[in-house]
Amino acid sequence: MKEIEQRANIHKNLQVIGFKIFADGVLEFPTQTAAISYPYVNSGKQGSLLVTPALLNRFVLFADRNHQLVHIHAIGDRAVSVSLEAFAMARRQSRNSVMPHSITHLQIVKPGDFGKFQRLHVLPVMQLLWATADRYTVELVKPYLHPDLYQYHYPANALANAGAIICGASDWPVSSANPFEAMAIAETRKGDLGVLTPAQRVDRTTMLKAYTTNAATAILMEEAVGSIEPGKQADLIMVDRDVMRVDADSLAERG
Predict the structure, then answer these.
(1) Residue 236 CB neighbours (<10 A)
(2) Taking the CB of the first residue and of the last residue of the chain, which one, N or C, has fewer CB atoms within 10 A?
(3) How far apart are CA 186 and CA 88, in angstroms?
(4) CATH architecture for residues 2-252
(5) Is 39 helix (H, G, I), strand (E, B) or coil?
(6) Does the pLDDT at position 255 exceed 60?
(7) Angle of helix 53-65 relative to helix 77-93, nearest 10 degrees?
(8) What are the domain boundaries of the chain?
(9) Sheet containing 69-74: which strands, arranged edge to edge?
(10) Average pLDDT, the chain
(11) Strand intervals (E) in the chain
(12) What is the dihedral of CA 112, 115, 121, 123, to 10 degrees?
C-alpha cells in the first residue's frame, strides 16, 4: 500500500484515495452478467460474481485498515448483498472504521438491504440519469427479470427513506456528466417508453445534496468542496435559471 501511495501521490492535485472493484457485470440482454437472486427468465442463470466473497472480504478489510476507500460496482441485487456483507465484516473487524465506502450503480437492490446502507455507513452512489423507461430498462431488462426484482429498479426513494445518503454520479463518458439532466430524471423517472418504477422518484432537494455535499463526502473532500462556505474552495458555477423552481424539462434543458 505504501508503495502504491508513493508512486501515485507525486503531485499535490493527484492522490490515490481508494480502489474500485467490479463485483458483477450488467443486466441487459444478451449479456446478463449482473449477479441476481432470481434466475434470468430466458436462460435460467443468475449471472456471476467477478470476485469471490472471501476475496472481497479480505480486500475490503485490508483497504479499510489502510484508510483507503473501496468503491464497488454492483448492478444486481446479489452483488449488492455480497458487497454490503464485505463492508459489514470490515466494520466488525475495525471498530473505529469511519471510511465512507460506497457501492455504485445499484440497479437492483432487495428490500432487506435498504437499511444496511445507513447502518454500515455505506454510500449508495447512483447514476439516476439511467432511471428512465427506455430501450435498456424496458426492452433489454424487463422481459428477462423476475417482477419481484424489477420493481426495485434503481430504488433511490426506498434507499433515501431507509436513511441512506444518496450520492450523485455520472459514469462519464458512458453517459452525460450534466447533473441537472440526472436530477430531472430522478424526479420524474420519465422516458420514451413511459415511467420507470414511479415509486422510486426522489425530490430535487435530495438530488441537489447528492451532487454537492454528499458527493464530496464520497471522495473524502467534504472539508474542501461540496458547499459554498468560508474556508472551502470557490468550486462553483453560475446558472441561468433557478434550478430549484423550474420544471423538470427546463432543469434538464441544455443551454
Answers:
(1) 10
(2) C
(3) 28
(4) Alpha-Beta Barrel (3.20)
(5) coil
(6) no
(7) 40
(8) 2-252
(9) 18-22, 69-74, 102-105, 123-126, 167-168
(10) 95
(11) 18-22, 69-74, 102-105, 123-126, 167-168, 190-191, 194-195
(12) 80
